[in-house]
Design goal:
By secondary structure, the protein is of the alpha+beta class. The strands form 2 sheets. A 6-stranded antiparallel sheet has the order 3-4-5-6-8-7, with helices on one face. A two-stranded antiparallel ribbon has the order 1-2. Helix 2 crosses helix 3. The longest helix has 15 residues. It is globular, with a radius of gyration of 14 Å. The N and C termini lie close together (about 10 Å).
Length: about 140
């Protein structure tokens, strides 16, 4: 991960100095997956395999999910009752049936959410959006 700021309390990395956050230390992947649903790890591995093929990625498991970062978070995986929610940030809005939710952020940032039920759901569309989010994220 490129330069940024590391919180001296929780030792998590962020894109901006003194960034507001819930100050809780990151977990190891083993700690994180020891309590989640069985379907979560194979989906994570499918996403991770793709984003790591693009370049360096910092994987940060915390109690609510897994953040994927360059300098800043460009994608998140969060377990839901019946699926894993994959969210990613783009500079435009994607209109596609796979997008279950969009949230307008600051500036031109739009957060998109896709429901992943199995690793095969990480298809060409999802990989394309993750690639775009990865390269749009500051280094």
């Amino acid at each position: 991960m490129a330069a940024g700021w590391t919180c001296p309390e929780c030792e998590r990395r962020f894109g901006r100095r003194n960034q507001s956050h819930e100050c809780a230390p990151a977990m190891s992947l083993e700690e994180y997956f020891s309590t989640g649903p069985d379907r979560e790890r194979p989906i994570f591995e499918a996403v991770r395999h793709h984003v790591e093929s693009l370049g360096p990625v910092h994987v940060e498991p915390v109690s609510v999910g897994i953040f994927l970062k360059r300098t800043r978070t460009f994608a998140e995986l969060r377990p839901m009752t019946r699926w894993i929610a994959l969210s990613f940030t783009l500079s435009h809005t994607v209109d596609h049936p796979r997008i279950s939710r969009t949230i307008r952020g600051t500036g031109s940032r739009t957060f998109h959410v896709v429901r992943l039920h199995q690793p095969e759901d990480v298809d060409d569309d999802v990989r394309g959006w993750l690639t775009e989010a990865y390269f749009a994220s500051p280094t």
